Structures are given as C-alpha cells and as structure tokens.
Amino acid sequence: MKKSAIILILALLVSTCLVGSVSAQDQITLTLWDIRTASDQVTPALKYAIERFESDYPQVKIDHVPTQNDNYKTKLRTAMSADNAPDIFMTWGSTGLKRYVEANKVYDLTSAIESGWRDNFMPAAMDLGTFSDHVYGVPVTNVAPAYIWYRTDLFEKYGISLPKTYADLKEVVAEFVENGITPFALANKNKWTGSMYYMYLVDRIGGSDALQKAINRTGAFNDQVFVEAGEKIQELVKMGAFPDGVNGLDEDAAQSRMLLYTDRAAMYLMGSWAYGTIKNENADILTKIDFMNFPAVESGQGDPSNLVGTPGDNYYSISAKSEHKEMAVEFLKYLTDEKMGESLIAVGNIPPFQGVGNKIDDPIMKKNYQTVQAAHYIQLWYDQSLPLELSQVHLNTTQALFSLEITPQAAADKMEAAAQEYYGN
Amino acid sequence: MKTNNLLSNKYFVAALFLVPALFFALVYLIIPIPLSAYYSLFKWDGIGAMKFLGIDNWAQLFSDTVFWKSVINNFKLVAISLIIQIPIALFLAVLLTRQIKGINFFKTIFFIPMLLSSIAVAFLWRYMYDPTFGLINGILNLVGLGHLTQSWLGDSSIAFYAAAAPIQWRFIPLYMIIFMAAISGIPEQLYEAAEIDGANNWQIFFFVTLPMLRGTVINASVLIIVGSLKYFAMIYALTGGGPNHASELMATYLYTKSFTEMNMGYGSTVSVALFLIALIVSVLFLRFNKKDIRN
C-alpha cells in the first residue's frame, strides 16, 4: 500500500513533466517584454497590434509580459545577463541597447530594414537604434520631448503670464508660492524626473554641445555650466518650487500628477507622454492643460527651441537567441504599421513614423508635433545617452541636489571623477 | 525484490523525498555563496567579459561610506525590531490566549498584516505617507497637530524610521503566533499553582509565562536579527534606499550595485560581506544564549 502510493506519486511527477514538453509542438509562442502595463496609455494600441497579428498568424501566440517602468529596466538587465532574454524586448535605444548589442545579445534587423521597411520611419528616430550602420531596434512608441505642462486656469486665476526666461520663471514660482500653490509637481524618488530640470538648464546655459564636450572629453562634467545648472536647481528648491519631500514621492504611483489634478500644483515638467497619461487618468482636466517650452536662460547660449527627450521613446528589438526571428520581425512590422500609427495618435502619442503630421486633429498634439519639427536639436535623456556607470552618478547627484544634501560644485566634481574613471583620463 | 526492499527502507524513502528540496537548496542557497565570493574578485557587468581585480573590490568596500551607512542602518533595524516586535507580540499573544469574547475575530484581525504581500503593504504605507494626501499627515492636521506633519519618505533624517515602521507592523503577527503556540504549551498546573499561591496577573506573567517562553523568545530574536540584517523588500519598495542613501540597507545597496548599476563584482562583494556579518552576529548571539536555551 505504502510502496504503491510512493510509486504513484513518482509516476505522477514524471508524467506532469512530460505533458508540459509535448503539448506545445505546432504552436509558436513569442515572448514580448515591455512596460505596457494596464495603466500605460499605449497598451490598447499594442494589444490591438497583437490581436491583428494573431488573427493573421493563427499558429503564433504573443505572450505579452508587461512590467512597470523602473522595475522593467532591472528585470531586462538581469534576464540579459542570465541569457534569459525574451524573443522581443523593449529598450529606450542608445547606450542601454548598445550594451546588449556589444554583447551579441541582439538580432541585427538591418536586412529587414533595408528591404523597404526604412521608409516607414522618421529618419531622426532611427539613430538611437542604429549602431555602426546596423539597425538593432525600431522606434515604436512616441516622439517624446519634455515640456512644461501647466494648468491654464491657475495661470489665469492669479494673472500670471507664461515665463519666457529663467528670471520670469523665478517670478512665476514666487507668485505661485505666495498663493499657496506648489509651482512644480515633481516626484523625484525615481530620479530621472528631477534630471529633466538639470538637463534643460544645462542646455539653456551651455547650449546643445555642452554635454557632448564633456562626453568626448574636450570639456568636463565640472565645467561652469554643470555647476550653474545645479545652482539654479537649488535656487528653485529654496524658493519652494517643488513639493515637500520631493525625493520621497513616486512618479510611478502618480504622486506628482495628483498635485496637478487637485489644483495644488501649477506646472509639471514631463515627457509629452504626460498628455496621454492625463487623458487616461483624468480626462476632465484636459481642457485646462497646455504646455510650453522650457524657458531660456538670459545669459545662456542655449537655443530655447532645443528640446530634451527622445525621438522614438521605446525601441523594440529581437533577441539573438530567439528561435523564431522571422516571425518576430513580422510582428515588429505590425507594431510599426499604419494602423498602429493611427491607434497611437488616438491615445495622444506622436508615432515616430512617416506622414503622421496630417493625421493629427487634436490641437495640443498638433502643437507638440510642430514644436518637435521646429526644434533645432533634441538632446536624448542623460540616463539613456550616458554610459550606465555615469548615468547612475548623474541621477544620484541630481537627486541629492534637490534635497540640498550636496553642493552644485561637489555634485559636478563627483560626476567628473566618475567620468575620469570611466574614460580613463 | 530489490526495489521493494529499498522502498521499505525508511531512510531511503526519506532521502528520496529530500532530493528535490536539497537540489533547490543547493542551486539557490548553497552554491551561490562560494560563487559570490568568487565574483567579488572581478569587475563584471553581468554580460561582458570578467576582469580579474584581486582584492580591489574589498578594499573599496572598506572605504565605502555608503556601505558602512547601510551596515549601521541594518543594526538600527535589528535594534528597532527587537525592541518593538518582541514586547508587542508578547503582549498580544498573552492577551489572545485568554478567554475574551470574540477572540477569533481579534486573532484574525491581528494576523492580517502577515497575510498581505510585502509590496502591497509598502504601497499601502506609501499612500499613507504622502505628504499632501496621506492619511498620517491628514489625521495630524485634523487633530490640530499640523506642526508635526512631515514629508515622511522624502526627509533624509526620518525616511529610514518611516520605512522601518511598516516592517514592524507586518512582522509582529508572525511572532505573536509563535508566542501564542508556546504559551498554549505551558502546563496548566503551573498557573493553578501560582493562583493558589495568590499571584496576581502581572506576577503570573513575569514568574510563570515569561520564564517558560525564554527559549521561544531567544529563537524569535534570532529570526528577527537575521531577518533584519538581510531585510530588503519593503525598504526597496518604499524608498529604494533613498533619499540620498538615507534608508540604505546592505541588501538594497547590493541590489542597486548589482542590478541597477550592473556592477556584479562589487554587488557580490557586498553580498558576501552581508553573509559574513549575519553569520557572525547570529553565531555570537546563539553562543551567548546557549546556556539559557538548554534550560
């Protein structure tokens, strides 16, 4: 009795193992990892593309595994280093993707791109997925620069006019503070959120080549421009431009936008995806929302039409290990086709595809599109354009600037020390 | 038959059932320890080639102020957890082993925090801590204590304590259950004898219950010490070790180093240091209390 029970259990164990491996024979499953959780505004567009693909290719199933933004970055890095990458994965292009390309983890899309697919994309958007003339990632989601989103009704109510320069901005900040309104909604636990202020200030003070000079080592990360950007951030902090305990608030938990929605904050420096997010979370307030460019710094060299952001936002790539690369390429074509473009426009994005300009009806999105066209330069986010070793130092020192725990000079020196270690000079 | 003989051997059967657990323990617990020690000698981003550094990572560790800050925070967490969790758990356990009306209701209520996942608890507290919309500041404002409102997770001087609070809240029920089990194992005669001798409730607690729970309290303390030294989940979810490393623990620091900054070599160094510290502290504590356990 006892023995037969044990044998039965063993038999059951063995048979369950066998069943798992036999059934999935004819069906192809492509695993797709990205950040398109239920609260992400692009998710419906992505789901629609998956639906269309699966109905055209009934033998293929897309296993979509979304993860929240900041956790996603860690999850992907871990999976990559453990050689467990999914068939299709999402990055932000640039150095983040390049690291995997250099480790031969990413499938080369060049031949697929050159057979007519390239015409589909805005040329500028391709750059971040292209390394040594080979394409490893295609832009899918959004042409997304950061703007200052603001509550038009609050500006009207207190008779405050839009700031054109940094001096104006300080006045605006002072007036909102006086009226008991937090000037900027910001949640800086995530660090990349506060980094946007720093990047814009560096651009406005030192121009678009300030960062490039520091990277190619003709300049340094503790040059005056970086110190001054830090000083201006701390000047704004001391004026009360940001919410209390800003470094403890979580952007992923919407602790910034809640201030904007409840009339407690007037401005919100955020990527243009904010428009879709707001539409998704609180559509009633959309009529009171508009955006402006980051103001100029009077003595600075930066062109105020310059933007900080990304020309493609999310790049989708195929793992070099995938067993069904052709199918995966086919799926990426569904992710970048005209219908996808239309559904992206519908959720408030500007897809990085050709010929979208005349399809946009929404006035704010039109303005967004035109602002992008008018920009002389788009600086990619530092945490995507700098190598990982430096981007983490940048994020940490910038967060410390917001809590006044580091001086601008010390922050810049720390960054330069890390750069010297990384570049070896 | 030979197989039948084997299967009727209870040691063989026991070993057979231990094999799966042993396999996973080996792969996920035992082998990684020497492996981490090996990785700690390299500069490695987890993807590319490994570069041998010798003891450079260890030299860096000893002069790494953030690491030492995280060690101090871990010991603070040990102290806070011992001081808060044991007495409150003991108090609740004594209360819930008495004849009170609706005892099952209270048992369930008090046990709920333990049933929630760490991350869910962290999110619950994150919204309670929200400086503008949170429950805590809201109540403080309501009762006229507005001057006590804080940006709980954003202020470096209190973020660690704010992040440590939900850990206490969540783990008290665990020790409460352990103590309740131990209390129900104390022979009834001891209480009867004490009552005949005219002991009051306090005396019964201090001279009967507490001495009989000594071994359980020590075991619970070891669990708390080791658990606090390697604690990760809620701190990571609430503050990520921030702001500016104010609430950094060894585990969050090694996670950030390994998986955010992709410095697997240095992350391994921190993890081996964490292992050694936890090992030394728990061995010392157990040795210190060895006599008591035997009683």
From TrEMBL, chain A:
<keyword id="KW-0732">Signal</keyword>
<dbReference type="InterPro" id="IPR006059">
    <property type="entry name" value="SBP"/>
</dbReference>
<feature type="signal peptide">
    <location>
        <begin position="1"/>
        <end position="24"/>
    </location>
</feature>
<dbReference type="InterPro" id="IPR050490">
    <property type="entry name" value="Bact_solute-bd_prot1"/>
</dbReference>
<dbReference type="Pfam" id="PF01547">
    <property type="entry name" value="SBP_bac_1"/>
</dbReference>
<protein>
    <submittedName>
        <fullName>Carbohydrate ABC transporter substrate-binding protein, CUT1 family</fullName>
    </submittedName>
</protein>
TrEMBL record, chain B:
<dbReference type="InterPro" id="IPR051393">
    <property type="entry name" value="ABC_transporter_permease"/>
</dbReference>
<comment type="similarity">
    <text>Belongs to the binding-protein-dependent transport system permease family.</text>
</comment>
<dbReference type="InterPro" id="IPR035906">
    <property type="entry name" value="MetI-like_sf"/>
</dbReference>
<protein>
    <submittedName>
        <fullName>Raffinose/stachyose/melibiose transport system permease protein</fullName>
    </submittedName>
</protein>
<keyword id="KW-0472">Membrane</keyword>
<dbReference type="Pfam" id="PF00528">
    <property type="entry name" value="BPD_transp_1"/>
</dbReference>
<keyword id="KW-1133">Transmembrane helix</keyword>
<keyword id="KW-0813">Transport</keyword>
<feature type="transmembrane region" description="Helical">
    <location>
        <begin position="77"/>
        <end position="96"/>
    </location>
</feature>
<keyword id="KW-0812">Transmembrane</keyword>
<keyword id="KW-1003">Cell membrane</keyword>
<feature type="transmembrane region" description="Helical">
    <location>
        <begin position="204"/>
        <end position="226"/>
    </location>
</feature>
<feature type="transmembrane region" description="Helical">
    <location>
        <begin position="108"/>
        <end position="128"/>
    </location>
</feature>
<dbReference type="GO" id="GO:0005886">
    <property type="term" value="C:plasma membrane"/>
</dbReference>
<feature type="domain" description="ABC transmembrane type-1">
    <location>
        <begin position="71"/>
        <end position="285"/>
    </location>
</feature>
<dbReference type="InterPro" id="IPR000515">
    <property type="entry name" value="MetI-like"/>
</dbReference>
<dbReference type="GO" id="GO:0055085">
    <property type="term" value="P:transmembrane transport"/>
</dbReference>
<feature type="transmembrane region" description="Helical">
    <location>
        <begin position="12"/>
        <end position="31"/>
    </location>
</feature>
<feature type="transmembrane region" description="Helical">
    <location>
        <begin position="158"/>
        <end position="183"/>
    </location>
</feature>
<feature type="transmembrane region" description="Helical">
    <location>
        <begin position="264"/>
        <end position="286"/>
    </location>
</feature>
